[in-house]
Amino acid sequence: MKLEKMRNRLKELDVDGILITSSYNRRYMTGFTGSSGVAVITDSHAVFITDFRYTEQAAKQIEGFEIVQHKGPILEEVAAQAAKMSIKRLGFEQDDLSFASYTAYKDELKEIEFVPVSGAVEKLRLIKSAAEIKILKEAAEIADAAFKHILTVIRPGMKEIEVANELEFFMRKQGAVSSSFDIIAASGYRSALPHGVASEKEIEKGDFLTLDFGAYYKGYCSDITRTIAVGDPSDELKKIYSIVLEAQLRGMNGIKAGMTGKEADALTRDYISENGYGEYFGHSTGHGLGMEVHEGPSLSVKSETVLEPGMIVTVEPGIYIPKLGGVRIEDDTVVKEDGNESLTHSPKELIIL
Known about the structure:
Blueprint: H1 2-13, E1 17-20, H2 23-30, E2 38-42, E3 46-50, H3 55-61, E4 66-69, H4 74-84, E5 89-93, H5 99-109, E6 113-117, H6 120-125, H7 130-150, H8 160-173, E7 178-179, E8 184-187, E9 207-213, E10 215-217, E11 220-221, E12 224-230, H9 235-254, H10 261-274, E13 286-288, E14 295-299, E15 312-315, E16 318-321, E17 325-328, E18 331-336, E19 339-342
Parallel strand pairs: 1-5, 3-4, 5-6
Antiparallel strand pairs: 1-2, 2-3, 7-10, 8-9, 9-12, 10-11, 13-14, 15-18, 16-17, 18-19
Helix pairs in contact: 4-5, 7-8, 9-10
C-alpha cells in the first residue's frame, strides 16, 4: 500500500525514482528498524541497500523490496542500482541530505539527474493507518500512566531533573524505548520558559510545575503536557490556569476535519487574547504527531493545511509570564469527520499537591 502510494507520487514529483535517506521515512516505507540503509523506489522496482550488519535483519523486516548489500561506499551501490533500473531523474530528500552528501551523490551518479524533492514521504505520513493509531494510543497510555505515577513522587525540595529522570525510568519500565524528547520539567519562574528542559532547580512550595513529556514506543511518539501546583499557588497563577484550561477545552471541543490549521489555532488563541493574555501565548496551538514528535500538520496562525480524518495533532495552548510562571496543557488527538478523539486522558483540572 505504501509503495503503491509512493509510486503514484513519482509522476507528481516528475522523477523516475526516489532515494529515501531519512531514518524516519526509511522506517515508514520499509519497516526497517536498523540504523543504516537507504531505499530506492521506482514505478516497477524497490531496492533496500544496507551493509553486512543489517542484511539479515532487513530480510526479516522488509517486504516488497530487494535487499542489496553494499561492499563499498553506499553511494556507489545507489548509483549502480539507479543505472540498473534505468533511472534518468532520481529524486532525493532535500530536507534530509546534507550538502556534502548531495555533492558526493551527484558526482557518483554522473549522467543521472539528481532532483531535490520535499515532503514526498511526509505527505503520506500525515494520515495515520489504524495500525499506527493503535500504537499511538498505547504510547499515550504510557504517558498517562507516567503522569499518574509522578504525582505520587513530586514533593518540595525535589530537583526538576529528578522528576524528569523518574518519568523517563517509569516510561521505559512500561515498554517505551525512551522519552519522545528531552523531558521538560519547569517549576516556579522557570515554568514561564515554554521549553524549559529539566534543571537542577529545586521545586518550592507555591510553584507551578509544567511537565511536558512523552513515550517513544514502537517507532511512534506521544506528547503530553500538564501543569500542576506544588503547594497553594498565587491567585494570578490560578487565573491564568483557568484561562489556559478553557482555551484548551475549546480547542479539543472544536477541532474537526475540514477546518484549516489556522482555524484550529484560533479556537484557543482567540480566547486567550480576549482575556488579555494574547502577547503571552507565543507559539502555535499544536502540531502533528507520529514517528516524529513534531511533524505536519501545524495548528498555527499561518497554516492553511486542511485537517483530514486520521491526522493526529496536539492541542497545547499556554500562557507564559516572565518572572512569575507559566501554564501549558496538552493532549494528543485523532482528527475525525465530526470532531476528534483524544488519545491522552490525564486529568486537566488544577491539581495542588
